[in-house]
Protein 1
Amino acid sequence: MKFNLQMFAVPFRRVSKTAKRQRRTHLKKDAPTVTTCKQCGAPIAPHRACTKCGYYKGKEVIKTKEEN
Ligand SMILES: [Zn+2]
């Protein structure tokens, strides 16, 4: 097992580019979770009202411009 725990601040020139890059391989931004609206099928963020039809949990909770 490789012991590379950084216990205190290390000047950046003391950490090689390779060590820095190897450490940062685990720092990734993951893709946002997308679900589909049960009302209209549009891709929406979970636990949020649909921006297309304004429905959440089978009820219309916000008025959208398209309906008016
Ligand atoms: Zn919808």
Protein 2
Amino acid sequence: MDSGGGGSNSKAGGEEFVESGVYHHDSNHHHHRYFSSAIVKIALLFVVAVVICFALNQSTYPPTQFFQRSYLYSSIPKNEPPENQPSSVNEENNLERILKKASMKDNKTVIITTLNAAWTEPNSIFDLFLESFEIGNQTKSLLKHVVVVALDQKAYSRCLEVHLHCYALTTEGLDFSGEAHFMSEDYLKMMWRRIDFLGTVLDLGFNFVFTDADVMWLRDPFQRFYPDGDFQIACDHYWYNYTDLNNSPNGGFNYVKSNNRTVQFYKFWYTGKDYFPGKHDQDVLNMIKFDPFIKEIGLEMRFLDTAYFGGFCEPSKDLDLVITMHANCCIGLENKIHDIKMVIDDWKNYMANSFVEERNSSSRTWTVPRICG
Ligand SMILES: *[C@@H]1O[C@H](CO)[C@@H](O)[C@H](O)[C@H]1NC(C)=O
Ligand SMILES: *[C@@H]1O[C@H](CO)[C@@H](O)[C@H](O)[C@H]1NC(C)=O
Ligand SMILES: *[C@@H]1O[C@H](CO)[C@@H](O)[C@H](O)[C@H]1NC(C)=O
Ligand SMILES: *[C@@H]1O[C@H](CO)[C@@H](O)[C@H](O)[C@H]1NC(C)=O
Ligand SMILES: *[C@@H]1O[C@H](CO)[C@@H](O)[C@H](O)[C@H]1NC(C)=O
């Protein structure tokens, strides 16, 4: 297996490194039903072989079938918490303790985001993310529930600087500040590592909202979540209704309650990395959402309407309704930052005029996406 240490700029190699950033691409409309329990059982026997193939074939997987976007993740090993560190560091970095401190007291809910060095530069995505909580309508108080999962030292330091709850998902001897391009080997490893990590959070009994740092928080989302949903996810495109599996989910924003169904579901989802080598979590989600296993465990899946949880793929049309705005459907860190800044300006304008009695429809819409979308 290629190590993720270097990285050419060649597109062919699957090791293309550009600016980093978390991002989830448009969902393809897969309707595979072959991830059935029976096949799962049989396929278990082949997991080892598949893993080996995965390792050998990784660099030949053609990323071109996907809409290319920049991504945040670097190579992340399985081990956690960090090894070879003084025990005081491990104590400081105890996940359960951090979650407990950060969680909403009434319902053990945390807000989780991931971060690496490139997104912590001054004026970069992370600053805009934080700013959105400041300028959002009653979102500021949510900041104290945010847990930043830092992927490198720089991100960790930046997190401490802004006094958020910080968890270091790093391992001695590996450099996570390197930037993994969408669908590179490192990128895939990190995406799957994240699913695994979020499964651990559920295991520990915490509900979470996972949010990419390029999601702007403009209103409190909790009133808009479905009371009866276990797993609720934002969409690139909201085609149908909130239960319709044909919607196109985007893994960059989701709300998950901790219970036996979701714990099982995350384990199931995570095994998808072995059954669908070369696919990332969002593609696998699009395949397994139809699987009978989901019905079997009784998982209630909900799709969040883009009217409230919008993005550049499909912006919410009415600023009176918008809750979050995701810089999805956007290639390139600079473009992303440019358009997010426009989101912030639009929102400030909107809020500044919030006392105007009759806002007409043009004063309640976005000027974005400009470059993205
Ligand atoms: C959890 O509790 C907080 C207050 O501590 C509240 O704002 C939030 O809406 C609650 N979330 C859910 C899902 O009930
Ligand atoms: C902000 O939230 C408060 C309380 O929910 C609400 O009364 C007010 O109308 C909101 N302002 C805007 C601009 O949405
Ligand atoms: C949502 O869509 C599904 C599938 O198309 C349909 O069976 C269901 O009745 C719809 N639910 C609502 C509330 O419209
Ligand atoms: C799972 O179910 C068992 C038994 O019904 C229960 O004791 C346990 O607390 C549940 N776990 C979670 C995470 O809800
Ligand atoms: C809507 O309001 C804005 C400012 O309040 C104004 O400039 C614009 O002309 C109005 N548009 C319409 C169609 O009335």
